[in-house]
Amino acid sequence: MKINHLYFATSFIFLLYSVGYSQPDTVWTRSYGTPLIDRCVSVSKATNSGYFLGGLSSNGDNYFWLIIRVDSLGNELWRYTDPQQGSYCAHTIAMPDGGCIATGAKIIYRRGYDARIQRLNNDGDVIWDHCYGGQFQDRGVKIIRLVNGEFLMVGGFEPGIIDFDTWILRFNEDGDSLDSYIIDDRAGFAGAADFFINGNDITVSGTYGAAGACLAKLNLEGNIQWIRNYPLWERVSIRSSAPTLDGGCILVGFNTPDNESNADAIMIRTAENGDTLWTRIIVEDGTNLFASVIPVQGDGHLIAGVSSIVDPDGDAILYRLSENGELLWQQNYGLEVADRFYSSIQLADGSFVNGGSININNGDFWLIKTESDPNEISAPHNVYLPDKFSILFAYPNPFNSVTKFDYQVFIPGQFDLKIFNHLGQEVYRMNRGYHTTGVHSLIWNAQGFESGCYNAVIHNGNSVSTSKLILIK
Description:
Blueprint: E1 3-4, E2 6-7, E3 16-17, E4 26-32, E5 37-45, E6 51-58, E7 63-70, E8 76-81, E9 87-94, E10 100-108, E11 112-120, E12 126-132, E13 139-145, E14 151-157, E15 165-171, E16 177-183, E17 192-198, E18 201-207, E19 213-219, E20 224-230, E21 236-243, E22 249-255, E23 264-270, E24 276-282, E25 289-295, E26 301-307, E27 315-321, E28 327-333, E29 340-346, E30 352-358, E31 364-370, E32 389-395, E33 402-409, E34 413-420, E35 426-435, E36 438-445, E37 452-460, E38 463-471
């Protein structure tokens, strides 16, 4: 039995045991390499089955952009690498044509790094390749597709030698810049690491120097609603964040106390307004870090990262947490030396696909598929499959009796609507019939329902997408 020592950031110690819960078995594992040191930092599901792996190759002095396309069994179909040194891929998303859009950074001669956005087709050929930035160090971190076919990219923007702002870029499917929003680091936010969209709100997580972790909420027009700082530990780096069912957020990353070589994995759970609800930290010798967090079917989250608790050189590890932070299960993966997970996704059948690096040939891309989550789950609130369809906006929200929400369909099919209350009980159902591709709308008349939080879930076969609704009377 593996036991992780998870400490509350208060005066007492809290131990989490994975007792009474089983872990998912491994379905298959694959590795992909070059003669260099390779690291997979992003996994995304392709539209027509399979996955995109994004990351980099390194010779120790320089980085090289690398994207690998694999089928549903992990067999490599093609790879794209940029022979120009000084670039890396940080994130990929699938496109309806079978290709992908990726973002990261690329060095520009005598100017530093620019944020890079690249589109590849289904065969791995470049459709377009654009760079954006100023005179110093700029980068792209993540991309999300919007209802109108446009995209948002979040990243870092350095307007001066000592400044480092957070940058949100809106662009179209041709990679043309349409608009941009800046969160000035003087406002208490910098070092963007991740973001997600919930209704009309953008939540961005990052790291703000000595002020520690930071979180900002904006609307889709770029207006800042609030910024929160969490100065809980000495030297924090936030790597990922994910929404919670109650409208809050989970931030994960690591802390390096007193400039030591050790790293302690950290987690911060916030309320909808950004207030801290609870924190966790793993304090052990060696490298322990949380690199990725995603919401999973039913409730709770999956966290991927690195643990040195069992193997001092580091194992890839998965933690499955309930919505209130209870550890349901954990599982170590890897060989004898220095293996890592950096990204995870959950499929419609509940299984997980996890990407990282494995210590083969000094480091290769690594992909593991596991079986579905073995634990009992409630209503499937959190599955997000943008390659098929997604709920985009609910308005008004909060609402009094009647609300309308839009959803975009990428693959035609039969659709129905279900409404769940805060207990996960189905309280309403509507058969929406056959939908073609495009944006569709529906209205829910909630007269006769009690005030509270509801989850609107649209089903298409085994795929679902959800939106949180707040009814106020």
